[in-house]
Amino acid sequence: MAKAVFLDRDETLNSDPGYINEPDLFSLFPWVGLELARLKANGFKLILVSNQSGIGRGMITWDQLSAIHAKLAHELMAQANIAIDQIKICPHHPDESCDCRKPKPKMILESIQELGLDPQHCFMIGDRKSDFEAGVNAGLKKSFLIIPGDEDSFRQTVTEILKIESN
User: Fold this and answer.
1) Span 16-65, pLDDT tens digits
2) Among 8, 16, 24, 127, which one carries the catalytic annotation?
3) Quick check: is 118 catalytic?
4) Is 10 a catalytic site residue?
């Protein structure tokens, strides 16, 4: 079975000026590509799991979100010649009581099933408690809560994942 790292998007991979509704507002942190490349080089799939309530609030359309993720893909290719393997989005407003919004594990569990992943070789990286809890709720090997937008925190987390998996 395959291994993976699940990643939150905003403030984990990119800055978040508020509801990002245009590609021009999206900016990948400059260190992300190289760090994710380290994971890819060690056989990890990369899966984005993101709450995007701006869709449910009517502040962003699915087409706008697709354009933003196209820019994400372009920037990852430019930085490190890598790609995200899968993207899962919860579009619901927090008040909707859906079954996919983190910290609920549905998006992660779907990816585990669809990609044939072994949860005991999977990790979650995010900047919010709900990200951390989603990984715990999905039964992943370990969840990491990083400092939002912090290069050292992100780099240390990737290093720790690689250390755990090398043992």
Assistant:
1) 988 899 999 999 999 999 999 999 999 999 999 999 999 999 999 999 99
2) 8
3) no
4) yes
